[in-house]
């Protein structure tokens, strides 16, 4: 196969891959969240959300409210956490993102439910010396979910070989297609 | 001739990727051509088109790579835009505008590429530069999915209004034997005849 045809075929493959990437990026732009689709990794929100559920997030400029389920990052932890907001302090109107204080708890139902767990500060989930979350820790609030579909992602994370196998099979299909 | 060798290998590559991979290995060692699955119209068309390219370039026309170059350039720019969007080294909020610009530019480039392909390229698989004293030609062909009728058209490039075209329309059964080998001699003769018809038409038009 001459160089020109090889380049055209490589670009074709590149365009397919990059179009998937761009769709993801436009989703990030549209929802305002840096990761609009996440997989639940822990069972702390059962029976509302189970391990392997997929959550759809948005961020936007709307204020964070008590009762919303949010996904947030903690310094020093790689994986984000999915819990419910139980307290919000806006000490003055128009407070900046760093000034809004948010407290979360692992409770499956809106507050008023069980008092068994402590909130996340009492549970020492936050970083050392951190009492509250701010808006900039929050990746997004949950606006929808798909049960169990994310189990595939968990399997692929636990056994990376499944990921490589899948990509290998897909690559073979694309390269040997007649178009 | 170098042109001949490179034109044979695309046909061989197309066939080798089908189930005949084992045969291809053997035949390649012997330096013979590989058979093409007679149900695979895409490979059949490709083999015939490659032969046409050979005949036309042997007839003194040089291939014009403009369309191919534009496709490669646009494709590369589009992929680079996506890479910039992915790997831009700034934190989330700062790069919102960059991301938006990349996504919109990607959409625009993809649209431009597709429009270019459908309007300028279409069915054409060969563009040439004008021969001395002659005109540039473009060769397009059709081989519908479940039909054995191969249709080749030679026209001037760019298309002149009211220009007639030279065409060849025959069943592929005239060129492929029962094992799937392309019998080049009759096909080359037909293509050469079509090329001469095209040239004499151009002379009359002038």
Structure characterization notes:
The complex is a heterodimer of chains A (179) and B (206). Chain A is of the alpha+beta class and 179 residues long. Chain A has 2 domains: 1-26; 32-162, Umud Fragment, subunit A. In chain A, 30% of the residues lie in helices and 20% in strands. In chain A, α2 packs across α3 (160-176). Chain A starts with a helix and ends with a helix. By secondary structure, chain B is of the alpha+beta class. Helix content of chain B is 55%, strand content 12%. Chain B has 6 helices and 4 strands. Chain B has helices at 2-16, 21-30, 41-58, 66-87, 96-121, 184-205; strands at 124-127, 137-142, 149-156, 166-171. In chain B, β2 (137-142) and β3 (149-156) form a beta hairpin. Chain B is elongated and about 65 Å long. The chains are: A alpha+beta (179), B alpha+beta (206). Chains A and B meet through α1 of A and α1, α4 and α5 of B. Chain A: It is a single-pass type II membrane protein. Chain A: Its EC number is 3.4.21.89. Chain A: It holds the Pfam family Peptidase_S24. Chain A: Its main location: endoplasmic reticulum.
CATH superfamily of the largest domain in chain A: Umud Fragment, subunit A
Count of alpha and pi helical runs of chain B: 6
Give helix and strand order of chain A, one letter per element, not per position.
HEEEEEEHH
In the sheet with the most strands of chain A, the strands line up as: 1-2-6-3-4-5
InterPro entries (chain A): LexA/Signal_pep-like_sf, Peptidase_S24_S26A/B/C, Peptidase_S26, Peptidase_S26B
Keywords (chain A): Hydrolase, Membrane, Protease, Transmembrane, Transmembrane helix
Pfam families (chain A): Peptidase_S24
Enzyme class (chain A): hydrolase
In short:
The complex is a heterodimer of chains A (179) and B (206). Chain A is α+β, with helices and mostly antiparallel strands. Chain A is 30% helix and 20% strand.
Topology of this structure?
The complex is a heterodimer of chains A (179) and B (206).
Chain A: H1 3-31, E1 37-39, E2 54-58, E3 69-72, E4 81-89, E5 101-105, E6 138-146, H2 151-158, H3 160-176
Antiparallel strand pairs in A: 1-2, 2-6, 3-4, 3-6, 4-5
Helix pairs in contact in A: 2-3
Chain B: H1 2-16, H2 21-30, H3 41-58, H4 66-87, H5 96-121, E1 124-127, E2 137-142, E3 149-156, E4 166-171, H6 184-205
Antiparallel strand pairs in B: 1-2, 2-3, 3-4
Helix pairs in contact in B: 1-3, 3-6, 4-5
